[in-house]
């Protein structure tokens, strides 16, 4: 006799091997049933001073390795121009739409 038959005969029916008897399972709570409380993770969970210290050390290490990028004045000027354009996109679109409906603003044309 093999091991499975021994277990079945000596202990009655073993759960999982007898397919005729339905097994009842307790309903499990899913993640959506219970309200989740969002807790900060990673750097957000750390003390602000510790995060600052880690960032400072990382910046120093990058400069020592020569992997850090240093902006020259031309690159900084270009980055500032792009940022200024991006921050005013909605206002420029709104002003252009208003100008198309009402004509140019007074004093501009």
Report on this model:
By secondary structure, this protein is mainly alpha-helical. It has a domain at about 75-100. The protein contains four helices and no strands. The protein is flat, with a radius of gyration of 34 Å. The model has no long low-confidence stretch (mean pLDDT about 75).
Keywords:
109 residues; mainly alpha; flat
Write down the overall mean pLDDT.
Answer: 77
Taken in chain order, the helices and strands follow as HHHH
Q: Could you tell me how far the N terminus lies from the C terminus, measured between alpha carbons in angstroms?
A: 102 Å
Gross geometry: flat
Helical residue percent band: 40-55%
Q: From the helix content, strand content and strand pairing, which structural class follows?
A: mainly alpha
Continuous helix count: 4
Radius of gyration: 34 Å
Question: Ranges with pLDDT <50 over ≥5 residues?
Answer: none
Number of strands: 0
- Percentage of residues in strands: under 5%
Biggest sheet details:
none
């Amino acid at each position: 006799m093999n091991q499975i038959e021994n277990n079945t005969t000596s202990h009655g029916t073993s759960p999982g091997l007898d397919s005729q008897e339905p097994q009842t399972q307790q309903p499990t709570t899913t993640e959506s049933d219970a309200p989740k409380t969002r807790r900060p993770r990673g750097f957000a969970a750390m003390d602000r001073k510790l995060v600052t210290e880690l960032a400072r050390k990382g910046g120093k290490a990058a400069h020592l390795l020569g992997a850090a990028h240093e902006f020259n004045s031309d690159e900084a000027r270009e980055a500032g121009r792009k940022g200024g354009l991006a921050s005013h996109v909605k206002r420029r679109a709104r002003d252009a739409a208003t100008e198309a409906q009402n004509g140019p603003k007074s004093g501009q044309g």
